[in-house]
Amino acid sequence: MVKFLQDREGQIITKGKDSGDLIGGRPSLAGSVSQRACVFCGSRVVLYPIADALHLIHGPIGCASYTWDIRGSLSSGPQLYRSSYSTDLREQHVIFGGEKRLYKALSDLITELHPKAAFVYSTCIVGVIGDDVESVCKKVQAEKNIPVIPVMAEGFQGSKKDGYKIACEALARLIGTDDSKEASPYSINILGDFNLAGELWTLQDYYSRIGVQIMTTLTGDGRVKDIRNAHRAKLNVVQCSGSMIYLAKLMKEKYGIPYMKVSYFGIEDMSDALYDVAKFFKNDEIMEKARRLVTSELSRLVPALAPYKKALEGKKAAIYVGGAFKAISLVKALRLIGVKTVIAGTQTGNTEDYKLLKAICDDGCILVDDSNPVELSEFVKRTGADLFIGGVKERPIAHKLGIGFVDHNHERKHALSGYNGMLNFAKEVYATVMSPVWRFVRDVK
């Protein structure tokens, strides 16, 4: 590991060779060119899918364009969330302050668009000049009679993971402010699913078929009224623990709602997500419906996956994604179609998450926390990976090295959750890895 920054020792290990556990949760090392995004980005991507809310960025126009429409989140109704609004702060506002500009923009937009709530995102420059965003939001909230919530997400506070926490605190200000929605004794909130490519609608179908009500989705296809009633659910099901586990803990402390972590990616994890919810409610009918659903889906899916497993047997994959639970699910899903994981890394995993990831990986797998393009390129060359699974920032790495790429980030347009999602994933891996184009690429590995 001599080519890597010495101070990152402990954040890069090889299973079966290094005895210690992978360390997560450290701040990015200066000069390491981390793939992590800023605090503002973290808060924005969590709150963005709330479809009937106004999202106003108080800062330079670049911050708004950076985060505009970057999730593949779909809405079954309102499309207000798809528009990006900014106060477009410039030099004169940095000198004289931007509070008046914020007040006017916020008032005018609420009058024009009639949102159910408004989120106002504070960016780096606002933290520097000291605009009192909180007081402006309070004033407009009193005048317009809708929730106006400041999201104090100045990018320099930390990394994307800190932005997740700030977004959870903003959501907590909405939760518990309405009691008008009827709640079933078998009701859940889904936390951390963002309805990428409509995945949430598949999950809603599954839970409906076993007799479980989804009270609120946080935040995919989200609605302000549902979020305000989220405290009435009996269980929180956390799909993306990196972004939403903090909110689940807040709700357990304040409302006594228990929570469980799940994953909806891959056969094993999708089935466990249904069974675990059924077990929680201790209802024989719900459990029997879950068994029938899983049996029906597997009888169709397993034979459909067989040809892809035969073709892909022995191929090797590199994984670098946002959170550790996503990486864990990917390792399992790849193994199901004959692909071995030789690199597994995340941006925001913690030490406990990495223990679980390490346990399911094969010996020789390189595990890495908060990596960068130089490291990832070296790992791919060293392991001979045939496939890279990551986000938009990893795509150029894969293509420059002459290997296939599968997008598993929030920009994607193909549903990968649920049983059909697993088949979609197998098809995409097959089409990418087995493409004849790689025969014409210079071998740079």
UniProtKB/TrEMBL annotation:
<dbReference type="InterPro" id="IPR005973">
    <property type="entry name" value="NifE"/>
</dbReference>
<feature type="domain" description="Nitrogenase/oxidoreductase component 1">
    <location>
        <begin position="38"/>
        <end position="433"/>
    </location>
</feature>
<dbReference type="InterPro" id="IPR049939">
    <property type="entry name" value="NifE-like"/>
</dbReference>
<comment type="function">
    <text>This protein may play a role in the biosynthesis of the prosthetic group of nitrogenase (FeMo cofactor).</text>
</comment>
<dbReference type="InterPro" id="IPR000318">
    <property type="entry name" value="Nase_comp1_CS"/>
</dbReference>
<keyword id="KW-0535">Nitrogen fixation</keyword>
<dbReference type="Pfam" id="PF00148">
    <property type="entry name" value="Oxidored_nitro"/>
</dbReference>
<comment type="pathway">
    <text>Cofactor biosynthesis; Fe-Mo cofactor biosynthesis.</text>
</comment>
<protein>
    <recommendedName>
        <fullName>Nitrogenase iron-molybdenum cofactor biosynthesis protein NifE</fullName>
    </recommendedName>
</protein>
<dbReference type="InterPro" id="IPR000510">
    <property type="entry name" value="Nase/OxRdtase_comp1"/>
</dbReference>
<comment type="similarity">
    <text>Belongs to the NifD/NifK/NifE/NifN family.</text>
</comment>
